[in-house]
Design goal:
Elements (H helix, E strand, L loop, with lengths): L4 E5 L2 E6 L2 H13 L8 E5 L4 E5 L6 E8 L2 E2 L3 H9 L4 H6 L3 E5 H4 L4 E2 L11 E2 L22 H9 L19 E5 L7 E2 L1 H5 L9 E7 L11 E4 H5 L5 E10 L10 E2 L29 E2 L4 E3 L1 E3 L18 E2 L2 E2 L6 E10 L5 E11 L6 E4 L4 E8 L6 E2 L7 E3 L10 H16 L3 E2 L8 H10 L7 E2 L1 E2 L11 E10 L4 H4 L29 H9 L3 H10 L3 E7 L7 E3 L4 E3 L8 E7 H12 L13
Parallel strand pairs: 1-4, 8-9, 11-27, 12-26, 13-24
Antiparallel strand pairs: 1-2, 3-4, 5-6, 5-7, 5-9, 10-14, 12-30, 13-26, 14-22, 15-18, 16-21, 17-20, 18-19, 21-22, 23-24, 23-30, 25-29, 28-30, 31-34, 32-33
Length: 604
């Protein structure tokens, strides 16, 4: 017992109490009677004898059913009234049957998960076990059979999956958008997906999956996909990209103009780039445009006033400022919107639609964090098949399962198989799902083995495969990471003005960064000359003359054909290969008042 217990409200000490434990119990009782706000939380710390009362905003609370003296406070007659609609949730909170606990008050609570396990020590019981999960993670069927890390991983990829982004997608002008062409309802679903009406905007397709290797094409996390399934529409999607431009006004009354630029325009691209444009300088609907094609012809006034000609007339030379299709994103013109912006200028938005057919390198994932890229697309006649002639849509590597411990994936495959044969949806809600035994019975009723295994035959040789192959139906998602949007290569191209090194980024035709760690790998392999090539030849190599006497960069006067040192006036200067970045470093050190000197020797 504590002689005096401190009492805090929202972290502020407001006084002391002789019996803090009794005070806590009394306050909780008053809250259950409705005399204290239901949102207030009262916690007692046994170690320090302090009472913490929290009423501030921003606390995360969760509802639990109250247990008093080892008995559930919610009685059968009240449950019946709830079912009949006579009692609401708020009524149960007012009557102290349901109460909200925050993290601090939950420290003192002993929460049961089922009515059978309630003892005298228990203070609360879960309304439903799935309540411990978030909205997104409770969409994963059989989640309780997965490792926690993979459950999080699977939940994280819901927002990367393609589906129906909005019913008004054809009117929207988002910068980027995706649309899955043939989304399906998942055969194995959860109660949360029903509450969210997830099936009204599905983002999955039910794939027939066999867990087996295929000639090394699904090594590591790669997957093999059936070409016939892709030709029937599996995983197909559309990618939308919106381009926007306006006729801007400039000081002096000058204005941009939407038109097909004339040949005398400064920066004229060439006739072939403008051939998709209509008379108004805007591309025609459903026209196929490839990268660098102009979709809005636009000219701007010159940046500087032109000189007056000998006849006193200023001939305005307009500049080319057309909008072109981005690199690697060709497609069809889906929509053209013409409107006005806030300043009253003419505004054009053009939406390009690209058909994205699954290809090698595209990413797919199940709801259990089993993600992988397509390693090969195999002709349908070469795919392995069952005794009934069923050919899987996707082949998953067996090594993907044991270390990840995604048993939920395996049970979903069984559930999907049983549901497809029975023609009904399977409940996979975490903690209250259809059990594996029940699924096994359903499979046996439809003539399959309860463990989901079948005999397979090799599609190439026709020979029976040794061992039985586990197969079933699982909801797979196509993710928006597509190889067509990530491919990048460069031979020569633009460089940065300051360092003369290649620019960065795919859009700017940039190079790939060969960093410190990559350099270390070459040293480790003993390929020092390759290191020289990557960091010098392919980057910013230059030859500068260096003074032998004072070690400074010399002057190379090409007009007078003279090379000399500006400090000691010596002509004993010699060419030295260096990167421009190094020469820039020397110059920047000089600005700091440091004089760097190079000691040069004969090349051995």
């Amino acid at each position: 017992m504590f002689s005096q217990g401190k009492v805090y409200i929202n972290g502020r000490l407001i006084g002391f109490h002789k019996n803090p434990e009794k005070l806590t119990k009394d306050l909780i009782l008053q809250r259950r009677k409705g005399k204290i706000n239901a949102q207030a939380n009262i916690a007692f710390d046994e170690d320090t004898g302090e009472v913490y009362i929290n009423t501030d905003a921003g606390r995360v609370q969760r509802p639990l059913l109250v247990v008093e003296n080892g008995k559930l406070k919610l009685k059968d007659e009240q449950l019946k009234q709830v079912k009949d609609g006579k009692l609401s949730w708020n009524d149960l909170v007012k009557e102290g049957i349901i109460e909200y606990l925050d993290a601090e008050e939950e420290e003192n609570a002993l929460v049961a998960t089922t009515p059978e396990e309630i003892t005298k020590e228990h203070t609360h019981i879960e309304i439903d076990s799935a309540e411990i999960l978030s909205v997104v993670s409770s969409l994963v069927p059989y989640l309780e059979h997965n490792m926690a890390g993979k459950a999080l991983h699977g939940a994280k990829m819901f927002k990367q999956a393609l589906g129906i982004p909005g019913i008004n997608y054809n009117l929207r002008t988002d910068t980027e958008g995706h649309l899955l062409h043939y989304p399906q309802k998942a055969i194995v679903k959860t109660k949360t997906s029903d509450l969210m009406e997830f099936d009204k905007r599905p983002q999955v397709q039910n794939f027939v999956v066999a867990i087996m290797p295929y000639y090394g094409f699904n090594t590591l996390d790669a997957v093999v996909i059936n070409k016939g399934a892709i030709e029937r529409g599996l995983g197909r999607s559309a990618y939308f990209r919106t381009y926007e431009t306006a006729e801007s006004r400039y000081p002096g009354g000058q204005i941009d103009s939407f038109e097909i630029p004339k040949e005398e325009t400064v920066g004229y691209l060439g006739e072939e780039f403008y051939k998709k444009l209509g008379e108004d300088g805007i591309v025609e609907l459903e026209e196929y445009v490839s990268e660098k094609d102009v979709i809005v012809g636009k000219t701007s006034p010159p940046r500087f006033l032109e000189e007056v000609s000998e006849f006193g007339v200023v001939q305005e030379k307009r500049r080319e400022s057309s909008i072109t299709v981005r690199k690697g994103k060709p497609g069809y013109v889906d929509k053209v919107f013409i409107a006005e912006d806030l300043e009253g200028n003419k505004l054009v938005k053009i939406k390009i639609r690209s058909d994205m057919v699954p290809e090698v390198g595209d990413k797919f994932s199940s709801k259990h964090g089993q993600k992988g890229v397509v390693g090969a697309i195999i002709p349908e006649e070469d795919m392995p098949f069952t005794e009934d002639g069923v050919k899987p849509d996707l082949l998953l590597n067996p090594h993907s399962i044991p270390s990840r411990m995604t048993i939920g994936h395996l049970i979903e495959m069984l559930g999907g198989k049983a549901g497809s044969m029975k023609g009904k949806e399977i409940d996979g809600t975490p903690f209250s799902s259809v059990s594996q035994k029940e699924i096994g019975k359903m499979l046996e009723e439809t003539g399959f083995r309860a463990d989901g295994k079948e005999t397979f035959f090799d599609g190439l040789s026709g020979k029976k495969l040794e061992g039985e192959i586990f197969n079933g139906i699982v909801a797979y998602r196509r993710l928006f990471h597509m190889v067509a949007h990530k491919m990048q290569s460069r031979s020569r191209g633009p460089v940065q003005i300051l360092t003369r090194q290649p620019t960065e980024g795919k859009e700017k035709e940039g190079g790939l960064r060969f960093g410190e760690m990559e350099g270390e790998t070459l040293v480790g392999h003993g390929a020092a000359m390759l290191l020289q090539e990557k960091l010098m030849e392919d980057s910013d190599k230059m030859v500068e003359f260096v003074c032998e006497k004072c070690g400074l960069i010399a002057i190379n006067d090409q007009i007078r054909n003279r090379r000399y040192c500006s400090v000691c006036n010596s002509s004993a200067v010699y060419p030295v290969e260096m990167s421009y970045g190094f020469k820039l470093l020397l110059d920047e050190l000089k600005t700091l008042g440091i004089l760097p000197k190079l000691v040069i020797k004969d090349k051995v």
